[in-house]
Specification:
This protein is of the alpha+beta class. Strand 4 and strand 5 form a beta hairpin. Helix 3 crosses helix 4.
Length: 143
């Protein structure tokens, strides 16, 4: 499942096997709130099956969909990097399977498999950079 993801597809097989030892698999049903905006972020996840919506609150507390995330993508990466509160809400829009990597397990990877930790961090940095560029481009359209 990890090898088929967008983020980890080009990792060596031994690194994928090692990473598998640090993640937990969960199934969530339609409508499950995976995390809420403003909560402490302690994990990211790889969406193995299904889809989730990322929603952002407006000034009046209404939720607006930012994006629909499909299988093979990751969500919540910022939380294991910066430890800040969640910037959005995530809700399963259909029954989904998630592979969670907690901040604590990422810290274990840093200690136990430092080369793998650097690979993961480089991939996360690239992913977040790509997303920031995309959002910056979208923002220009609204200015």
């Amino acid at each position: 499942m990890i090898a088929e993801s967008q983020l980890f597809a080009d990792l060596e097989w031994k690194d994928i096997q090692a990473l598998a030892g640090y993640v937990q698999c969960y199934e969530v049903s339609t409508g499950t709130v995976v995390f809420k905006e403003g909560e402490s972020g302690t994990y990211m996840f790889l969406l193995v099956k299904g889809e989730v919506e990322i929603l952002k609150s407006d000034q009046d507390g209404g939720l607006h969909r930012i994006v629909l995330v499909t299988h093979g993508k990751t969500v919540g990466e910022m939380s294991i990097i910066d430890g800040e509160k969640r910037s959005a809400t995530c809700i399963a829009s259909q029954t989904s399977i998630l592979l969670l990597l907690t901040k604590d397990n990422y810290a274990r990877i840093i200690k136990e498999k430092p080369v793998l930790a650097v690979h993961i961090l480089a991939k996360l940095a690239k992913l977040m950079s790509q997303r920031l560029r995309s959002v910056s481009g979208q923002l220009v359209e609204y200015l």
